[in-house]
Each structure stands twice: as structure tokens, then as C-alpha cells.
Structure prediction request, 352 residues.
Amino acid sequence: MRALADLLTARIAATGPITLADYMADCLLHPQHGYYATRDPFGAGGDFTTAPEISQMFGELLGLSLAQAWLDHGSPAFTLAELGPGRGTLMADVLRATRGVPGFHAAAKVHLVEASATLRRVQRQTLGDHPVIWAEEVTALPDDAPLFLLANEFFDALPIRQFTRQGQGWAETMVGLRDGRLTLGRSAPAPLAALAHRLADTREGDVVETCPSALPIMAAIGARIARNGGAAIIVDYGDWQSLGDTFQALKDHRFADPLAAPGEADLTAHVDFAALAAAATPARASQMMTQGALLERLGIAARSARLAQSLTGARRDAHLAATRRLTDPAEMGSLFKALALYRDTPPAGFDP
Ligand code: SAH
Prediction:
């Protein structure tokens, strides 16, 4: 199906090259042809696999960290929210792991922020009859109760802009046309206020990416946590500051050309955790840590050994491989990072 490629080609022919952010937004979320709008991309039959799809332990451990933070708040009525829940697996694991925390379920109102109608249906199935409220936007989350929030592989799916340093200015990567086909080019360099602080730590030719739509999302979460209490745990691939070209397409578990089949491949970029933390003030941000270190602090070794006891043969091997995949630095353990937002003390596993 070339429908989205044709739409983008016609648009660029009519009005000129578009930013990567505009391109990504259409490819991922176009209401008819967008990647997330048209499919369930997860798992072995899909294009990529995420931590909650690899092992139930991911959601269990993050859920118990949030539940401990909730107990430390004095067990108030609260909003339990997730951004971009995919299949709903993470929230299902959180809810199962916290069944034994007295009062937690009764005090929680579950809110899922999900743009895709297709994935909302999958989430409804995964969560069975547990009451859930869906929202299109983070700004629709309640602002009158503590907010305990999770986001795994959400921010990497938000549209980015990409800039190459030239002198004291920045040339933006644009999607244009050559011989009627989509192609990458660069705008003329210009100064950019949003990157003024990066002139000090970059050199000629360095590439830096920004994620404009992440900033109001972080501001909305930070304002709620600072006002009403709560905590947020954000996990994604990326680093403390953006550096280098990380714009990528994944199709059938392989890297693909991001321009080859608009709407058919997952498009992502690495997350700039420093930018997320800064946008969340006045909420406080923890130290960023690796996913592997976080899960180890939250007790994945003991939890994994416990689950292994009831497994044999191939299922036991798969479980042990999943544990390794989540924590090993050669797999997801160090590429993926975690950051917590909080008001008074960081949730279990994180340092202030
Ligand atoms: N957290 C899940 C899925 C990650 S994929 C997991 O770990 O398995 C990204 C998710 O974010 C999908 O559910 C996608 O539909 C959703 N999403 C992407 N952009 C969004 C946006 N702008 N607003 C709301 N949801 C979005």
C-alpha cells in the first residue's frame, strides 16, 4: 500500500520539504495510514518487542516500586496512569503484582493515554473488566489527586527534529523529493534558541535531535506531581543528552530505510533524558540510570529465581533468557535508561 507515500509526495510537491517531525507524525499516527493507527506491532509476529512483552517481571517490579511510593504518600486516592500502553501488558502486570498491596486497587483510578484506536481495543482485552479511562492527551489526566505514572517506550515514538551544527547555527534535516521520490536533505543553517545551550558541548558537523512534543507532556506530568504528589517512571532507549543521528526505522525486527515505506515501519529516535527532566520542573528528577541497574535494585535476581523454580525445560530456559535480555548490558540492560519524577523522595530503585 503506497497511499501514505503518495499523500506525502503530493504534499511536499505542493508546499516544499517537511521536517522529520512532520514526517514521523504522519507515518506513526495518520488516522487512516499511520503505523500505530493500523496495526498491533508488538511481539514475534510484529516489528519489535518491548520489555513488558519479554517478561512479566518488568511490570511487576515497576508496579511494586510505584506501590511503595504510594504507601509512603499515606495511601491516598490516586491516578494510576500509563502513556502509550501498547498491548496493555505492562499495566496488567502492575495490577496483578499490586493485588496484594492492601487498598491499592480500591484507591486507584486507571488512566491510559493512547492515541491509537486499534491499540485501545487490544488494551481493553488485555485488562479484562478492570475499569479504565482512556485519554488522548496527558493534559486530560486528572489534576486533583496524586499521579503515579509509567511510560515505557513512549517517548521514542514521538516525532523529532534533527539538526546538524554548522558554525554557530543549525541545519535541519528535511524530507524532500528527488525525481519524485522521498529523500533526505538539509535546510540552510540558522541560529536556534532551543539549541543555544548545545553550542558549548558540540562541534561542527555534530547532529542533535529535539523532541518538541515531549516538552508539554513532561510539563503537564511535572506540574501534577509537584502540586498533588505522586511519582513517574520513564523507561526508554536514549541517553542524558542527544548526540548523533538516532532516527531509525524497524520492520520485522530489522533496521529499515525510514523513507522506504511510510506508515509500514516503526519510526523512532533515542530519548534525550536531560530535556525530559528539565521540562518536568517544578517536579524533581532522579538520577538517570540504566534499565539493568534499576531492575537489579528492584530485585529482579530474586524474582527471576523464584519464577524459575516452578518452570522446567524450554520454558525455564526462555524465562532465564528473558531475564538476561532485560538486564544484560549487551542486550537491553544499558541501552535502555530509566528516570523518575517525584516531589519529596524518589521511588524505590532511584537516587535523588
Ligand atoms: N508501552 C508499550 C508500547 C510502546 S509503543 C510497551 O512497552 O510495549 C508506543 C505506544 O505509544 C503505542 O501504544 C502507541 O500507539 C502510543 N503512542 C504513540 N504516539 C502517541 C501519542 N502521541 N499519544 C498517545 N499515544 C501514543
Q: What stands out?
A: The pocket of S-adenosyl-L-homocysteine is lined by residues 28-29, 36, 42, 50, 52-53, 84-86, 90, 113-116, 119, 152-154, 157 (CB under 6 Å).
